[in-house]
Structure to design on (275 residues):
C-alpha cells in the first residue's frame, strides 16, 4: 500500500457566531481521513453537512480549531499565508462555479500564464506550457486570445481545470466542480478528470452532494453528516450497498432517468425519513 499523500486526523473547524458570549459554531467535529497518491476520495453529503468546509480547511481557507492536516509528511494545519502560498505547487483547487472562478477581464492565455509567472516560468517556456495545458483539457489553441465570456460553462470549467494543472500539483481539491453544469457536460468533465488522473497521477479530494457523481469518479468515499464522517469505504460498496441510513437516503435522492423508478425512490426516501 502506498504511503498517504494527505492525512486528516480528528479535524475540528469552528466559526465565531454573533451574539454575547455565544459559543462558536463547530462545522467539523473530529474528522479523520486519508488520500493516497493518484487516488480520488469522494466527499459526499447534503448542503450544510460540512463537506465543503473540509475542503476549505485543507486549502487553508477555514480555521482549524483542533486536530491536524498532514501533506506528504508535513503538518500544514496552521501555516502562515506566505507558507500556504508556497504550497500552491502541490495543492490546487477547482471551484464550483465556472462563471465566477475566472477573471472576466483576462484572456485565457493570461489566466493560465499567471501561476506560471508566479513560479518564475516566463517567455517561450510559459507559452509552450499554456499550449500543453489547453491540449490536456481539449481546448483549441486560439483560446489564449479569447475572454471567458466567449466560452460555455463546460469549456470554462475545462479552463479552470487547466489552471489548476499549471504547476503540476499532486493534489487537487474539487469543490462541487460539476454541479453548475448540465448532465451531458457533467459526464464529459468527469471523464476529463479521470483521464487527467490516469495520465498525471494527480490525487483528488472530490466534494459533491450527488452520490451518482461521486460513484463515477471516486476510488473511496467518505459520507459527511452534521460535521462528522458517518460512513467511509470502497466507492462501489458505499454507493450501492450503504450501511448507514443517511447514506441510503442520499442514494435514493440521486436522480435516475426512469420516472416510475424515480417515483419509487422518492417514496422509499420519504419512508426512511419518517422511520
Amino acid at each position: 500500500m502506498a504511503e498517504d499523500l494527505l492525512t486528516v486526523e480528528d479535524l475540528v473547524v469552528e466559526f465565531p457566531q454573533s451574539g454575547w458570549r455565544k459559543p462558536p459554531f463547530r462545522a467539523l467535529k473530529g474528522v479523520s481521513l486519508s488520500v493516497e497518491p493518484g487516488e480520488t476520495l469522494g466527499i459526499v453529503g447534503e448542503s450544510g453537512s460540512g463537506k465543503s468546509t473540509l475542503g476549505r480547511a485543507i486549502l487553508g481557507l477555514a480555521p482549524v480549531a483542533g486536530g491536524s492536516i498532514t501533506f506528504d509528511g508535513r503538518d500544514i494545519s496552521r501555516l502562515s499565508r506566505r507558507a500556504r502560498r508556497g504550497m500552491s505547487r502541490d495543492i490546487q483547487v477547482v471551484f464550483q462555479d465556472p462563471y465566477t472562478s475566472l477573471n472576466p477581464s483576462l484572456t485565457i492565455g493570461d489566466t493560465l500564464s499567471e501561476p506560471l509567472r508566479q513560479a518564475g516560468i516566463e517567455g517561450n517556456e510559459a507559452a509552450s506550457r499554456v499550449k500543453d495545458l489547453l491540449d490536456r483539457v481539449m481546448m483549441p489553441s486560439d483560446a489564449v486570445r479569447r475572454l471567458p465570456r466567449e466560452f460555455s460553462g463546460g469549456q470554462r470549467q475545462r479552463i479552470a481545470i487547466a489552471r489548476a494543472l499549471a504547476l503540476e500539483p499532486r493534489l487537487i481539491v474539487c469543490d462541487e466542480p460539476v454541479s453548475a453544469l448540465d448532465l451531458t457536460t457533467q459526464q464529459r468533465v468527469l471523464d476529463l478528470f479521470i483521464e487527467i488522473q490516469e495520465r498525471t497521477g494527480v490525487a483528488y479530494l472530490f466534494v459533491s452532494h450527488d452520490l451518482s457523481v461521486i460513484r463515477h469518479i471516486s476510488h473511496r468515499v467518505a459520507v459527511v453528516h452534521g460535521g462528522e464522517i458517518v460512513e467511509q469505504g470502497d466507492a462501489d460498496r458505499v454507493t450501492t450497498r450503504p450501511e448507514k441510513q443517511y447514506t441510503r437516503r442520499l442514494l435514493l435522492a440521486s436522480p435516475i432517468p426512469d420516472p416510475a423508478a424515480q417515483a419509487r425512490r422518492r417514496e422509499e426516501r420519504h419512508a426512511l425519513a419518517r422511520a
